[in-house]
């Protein structure tokens, strides 16, 4: 971690450069694994975790989602991907590494967006803010767009039509949840408008009981992540086949459930928007690619799909 010298005396604005090194185990034989068995991602971020709303810091859920992408590259390779609340851009960098056909990153905070673009350039990725068809097909180009959830229009969102939507730690503020759910519903819905689709209702389901779980049973203390071992790799990759072959858009959200009431609110809004949520935490566990990072508590993070 390298500190940048700054004439600004306010410590809250201080920037550091963190190099995140993903270390691939010997059993990892996929083509995305560098010869050095190490992928180093330099990121400029803030020492103040709340600067730029939540965008200018490296959060545990973004580390987890990045590990997931690198562990299952076949899910994201040659797919158009759209991230809501992209923060420092770590997830987008990993998507580009596994050769997603399109990578569009969005954030509602302009200072976070500027910092994200700088990070993409640090990682030798070209950035663009326009969405011309000629450039969006270039795998070396990552799109960065300013997208406040509360002002995003249905027409604007329907221009993207991604195959995969991603979000890391986006379920945190109850006041933002209606806007987040609206954005997800529009991006996931190919055929009908979001307004028309809200008239239906699909029961949210989690593994085990076929109904919405009580969110008080879904807090971090009840969940223990298990480290993956090589004997499980084949079976877990087989579990991912349906996700790779599915034709409809899907959202992957990694999140720490800090407040059960907030998560309960998210489930209720998703149900009203005819969205189905499934917990994949124990089904698709990523490799532990950050074994040296002792402060990173993987056991508190959940992985959900939204369809």
Characterization of the model:
With 307 residues, the chain is of the alpha/beta class. The protein has a single domain (15-130, 139-190, 248-306), classed as Rossmann fold (3-Layer(aba) Sandwich), CATH 3.40.50. It has helices spanning 60-71, 73-76, 90-97, 110-122, 133-136, 154-158, 177-188, 194-197, 233-239, 241-245, 260-272, and strands at residues 2-3, 15-23, 38-46, 80-83, 102-107, 126-128, 141-146, 164-168, 250-256, 277-279, 301-306. The strands form two sheets. An eight-stranded mixed beta sheet has the order 6-7-5-4-8-9-11-10, with helices on both faces. Helix 3 (90-97) links the parallel strand 4 (80-83) and strand 5 (102-107). Helix 1 packs parallel to helix 3 (90-97). The longest helix is centred in the middle third of the chain and has 13 residues, at 110-122. It starts with a strand and ends with a strand. Mean pLDDT is 79; it is low at 199-239. It holds the Pfam family Methyltransf_16. It comes from Gossypium darwinii (Darwin's cotton). This is FAM86 N-terminal domain-containing protein.
Task: Throw out a few tags for this protein.
three-stranded antiparallel β-sheet, Rossmann fold, eight-stranded mixed β-sheet, 11 strands, globular, Methyltransf_16, 11 helices, SAM-dependent_MTases_sf, alpha/beta, FAM86 N-terminal domain-containing protein, 307 residues
């Amino acid at each position: 971690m390298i500190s940048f010298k700054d004439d600004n005396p306010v410590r809250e604005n201080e920037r550091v450069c963190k190099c995140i090194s993903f270390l691939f185990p010997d059993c990892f034989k996929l083509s995305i694994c560098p010869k050095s068995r190490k992928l180093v991602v330099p990121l400029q971020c803030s020492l103040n975790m709340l600067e730029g709303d939540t965008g200018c810091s490296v959060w545990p859920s973004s580390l987890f989602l990045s590990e997931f992408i690198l562990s299952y590259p076949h899910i994201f390779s040659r797919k158009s991907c759209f991230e809501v609340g992209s923060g420092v851009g770590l997830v987008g960098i990993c998507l580009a590494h596994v050769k997603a056909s399109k990578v569009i990153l969005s954030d509602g905070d302009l200072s976070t967006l500027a910092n994200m673009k700088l990070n993409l350039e640090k990682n030798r990725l070209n950035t663009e803010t326009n969405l011309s068809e000629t450039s969006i097909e270039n795998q070396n180009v990552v799109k960065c767009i300013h997208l406040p959830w509360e002002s995003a229009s249905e027409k604007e969102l329907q221009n993207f039509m991604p195959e995969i939507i991603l979000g890391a730690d986006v379920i945190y503020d109850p006041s933002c949840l209606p806007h987040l759910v609206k954005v997800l519903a529009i991006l996931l819905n190919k055929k009908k408008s979001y307004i028309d689709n809200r008239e239906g209702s699909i029961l949210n389901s989690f593994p085990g009981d076929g109904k919405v779980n009580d969110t008080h049973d879904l807090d971090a203390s009840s969940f223990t992540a298990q480290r993956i071992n090589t004997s499980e790799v084949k079976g877990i990759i087989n579990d991912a086949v349906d996700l790779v072959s599915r034709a409809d858009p899907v959202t992957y959200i990694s999140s720490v459930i800090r407040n059960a009431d907030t998560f309960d609110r998210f489930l209720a809004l998703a149900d009203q928007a005819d969205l189905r949520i499934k917990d994949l935490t124990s089904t698709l566990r990523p490799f532990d690619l950050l074994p040296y990072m002792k402060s990173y508590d993987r056991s508190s993070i959940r992985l959900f799909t939204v369809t």
